[in-house]
Every structure is written in structure tokens, then in C-alpha cells.
User: Which sequence fits this backbone?
């Protein structure tokens, strides 16, 4: 998977899979997710430079960026 598939960067910094089977992809150019055979972008981060992803026990997605931490309910995309 790369920019021709819809990612903002060919460099992937982290991956996480939530309890719904959504694959979350962190890149230096933002947060993306893969669902239903398509790549889409998730907006609303403190910075586009995603450094770390974590899905917690209640299916929240924690996103670490160079500017701080964001938390999303995974069904809010």
C-alpha cells in the first residue's frame, strides 16, 4: 500500500487494528484507515506527523503526534 492507493506518504510510522477490524495507518502526512478495500483519511489531529497508534480496551484510538496526543472513538470516522 502506498500513495497510489490513497496514503499521504509512502512512509508508515505505525499500524493498529481496532475491534471492528479497521486498519489504522499512521504516516508523517496524517492518519489513514483501510476499510472495505479503500484507504481514507481521518482529520482532526494536533499534527499530521503521526508517530504512534494504540487501540485501547474500549476501542478508542489514541494517536501520538509530534504536537501531542489525540483520542478518537473509532466509530466517529
Assistant:
Amino acid at each position: 500500500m502506498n500513495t497510489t492507493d490513497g496514503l499521504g506518504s509512502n512512509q508508515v510510522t505505525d499500524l493498529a487494528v481496532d475491534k471492528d477490524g479497521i486498519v489504522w495507518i499512521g504516516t508523517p502526512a496524517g492518519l489513514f484507515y483501510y476499510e472495505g478495500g479503500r484507504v481514507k483519511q481521518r482529520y482532526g489531529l494536533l499534527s499530521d506527523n503521526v508517530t504512534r497508534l494504540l487501540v485501547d480496551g474500549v476501542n478508542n484510538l489514541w494517536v501520538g503526534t509530534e504536537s501531542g496526543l489525540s483520542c478518537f472513538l473509532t466509530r466517529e470516522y
In short: The mean pLDDT is 93.
